[in-house]
Amino acid sequence: MDKNSVGFQLRALGILLKRKIDSSEAMKRFENITGMQRWVVKLLAEQQQRDVFQKDVEEVLSIRRSTATKLLQLAEKNGLIYRESVDYDARLKRIKLTPKALELHQIIMHEIELLEIQIQAGITKEELDHFFKVIDKMKRNIE
Question: Does the CA dihedral 69-7-44-115 come out positive or negative?
C-alpha cells in the first residue's frame, strides 16, 4: 500500500471526516441515520424552493436508480422524508423533508462549519486556493 498515493490519502481524509462528524454529540441523536441519508437531507434542504424527484437524487449523488430507491425508502422509514404527488404528472412523486429532517439539517450545517474551521486551521488562503485548483484538476482528469 503506497501511502503517497493521492487516492489513499483522499480516502483516509474522508474516513477521518466521517468519524469526526459521526462522533459529535449532536449527531449521536441521529445515530441510525446514514451518511447517504444526510446527503439527501442536505440536497433537499438546499432545493426547498423547487420540486425534487428521485431522478434528481440519482444525478446529484451519482448513484444508480436501485440504490436511490433503497436510500429513499430508508430515509422515509426513518422519518426524514415523505413523497407527494404533483398535479402535472401522476407518475411523479416529489420528495419533501419532514420537520425531523430540517432539524437534522441545521445540526449537520453547524457540525460542518465547526469541522471546516478545524480543518483549515493553520492553512493560508493561498494554500487553500492552490488545494482547490489541484482538486479541480484531479476531478477533471477522471471525469
Answer: positive
Question: Which secondary structure element, helix H or strand E, spans residue 70, and what is its range?
Answer: helix 65-77
How many residues comprise the chain? 143
CB 94 within 8 A of CB 111: no
- State the SS3 of 6-54: HHHHHHHHHHHHHHHHHCCHHHHCCCCCCHHHHHHHHHHHHCCCCCCCH
According to the model, what pLDDT value does residue 133 have?
A: 96
Q: What is the pLDDT of residue 1?
A: 61
Q: How far from each other are the two terminal CA atoms of the chain, in whole angstroms?
A: 25
Give the number of other CB atoms < 10 A from CB of residue 52: 19
| Rounded CA separation 91/60 (Å) | 21
Handedness of CA 139, 12, 62, 34 (dihedral sign): negative
Q: Who contacts 93 (Cβ-Cβ below 8 Å, separation ≥6)?
A: 53, 54, 83, 84, 85, 86
Answer yes or no: is pLDDT of 22 > 90: no
pLDDT average, residue stretch 54-63 = 93
